[in-house]
Amino acid sequence: MEINLAKTQQLLLFVAGTMLILIGTFISASPIDFYASNSIDLGSNVSLLNELKAPAGFLLVAGLFIIGAIFVQRLADSAMLLATLIYLSYAASRFSSMVFEGIPAAGLVQAAALETIVGLACITAVIDRWFDLLLRHVSLHGFLQCSVE
What we know:
Strand content: under 5%
Structural class: mainly alpha
Number of strands: 0
Radius of gyration: 19 Å
Number of domains: 1
Order of helices and strands: HHHHH
Distance between the termini: 27 Å
């Protein structure tokens, strides 16, 4: 089945993927500087730096996959679902932390808000796609039943 992405889906995949690529790249390249921008002092703990670079690599690769889905459109549904899971899980974790540990630096609160917005936009696209597929299936199934009788 051929998938034609709407311009809004392409834009959403582009924004979601680009943000992940940038964050993953900045953390991988210089975690000390990246986290210092939100008043987080990592010191020179090599193990901590290593631990932060591992998920940064995942974010970078996930971003590349999401951007790639713009061009290899059969991957678009998976990429949109992946973006939804990443952004909403990050947002939920940040808000949970705010409830239990308190409000962090302003940049992290802004990150939580942006992650929520992108995650909600992605899940809206996923749900829209699922309803579209469901309606096509029901229409096709109904059509086949009518033509058999």
